[in-house]
Fold Acyltransferase.
Amino acid sequence: FGETGLHHIHTFTHFFLVFFWVASIWKCVTVSLTAYFLFLLRPPEGRRVDCVRRWKVWQHLSNYFPIKLVKTAELSPSRNYILGCHPHGIISMGAFACFSTESCGFAQAFPGVRSTLAILAGLFRLPIYRDYIMSAGMRPVSRHSLEYMLTRRGVGNAVVIIVGGAEESLACAPGINTVVMRNRKGFVRLALECGADLVPVYSFGENELYKQVVLPEGSWGRRLQALFKQIMGFAPCLFLGERWLFLPYRTPITTVVGSPISVPKLQSPTEERVDHYHTLYMEALTELFHKHKAGCGLADTHKLQII
């Protein structure tokens, strides 16, 4: 072939090898990413890692406000529970610290009971972040996921649901104690179908973490927030913090866990049964609020508004 021909063959061989190497790497990356994203489509069955819940950073987080967990009654490890946590606030910091980490001592306060915070299902479609929230013991707030925890994971499970959700976050502001649950009965029906006791929880100080611009009902801004919430599953709140406008204020948060309401297991609960236990739950939550509000820094004039 001559020197020129051999040089071209040598160059072509190098090019082919490099191309083959790049194609092999790209193929491995493509297959790995495809497998990972297909895995994201599966409902997570949980990969709880207790050491993640005990990271030292969570203790620093709780000490920043500080956040405290108050126990008012025993939770038996021979039962399953649905803990309704109120209010949502902007970021539900009390619920996160108390039930997704061990910085507030949940395992010591309720030995044998495993807390699981139910959060927005869409967060489990975010690569990497999904793996973290699963290792922290969080699960999607979906019927399939909650039924799995309450029927197929034995006993001693405490599923924490922030009942008011995104709608409640739009009504939170310092000095306001409003919870959205009068027409939210799905968690009560689930408790009856699974035979899980209901436990009211209130986080005093949660609404004081940020100053929010609460838009009036019927305004165009509130309608846009409602539309965004309907599409994305969460509401865009207009809020301000103390540092760089987004860090929360250092306000103490006291998360009080109330007494369990015994709930029977019914395969097909009637609307009357659901309404009955829903009313019992609202009464228990109201009693919990008024019993502990003075000890948590609220004046006697503060009332709990349920909408």
About this structure: Residues 1-42 form one domain.
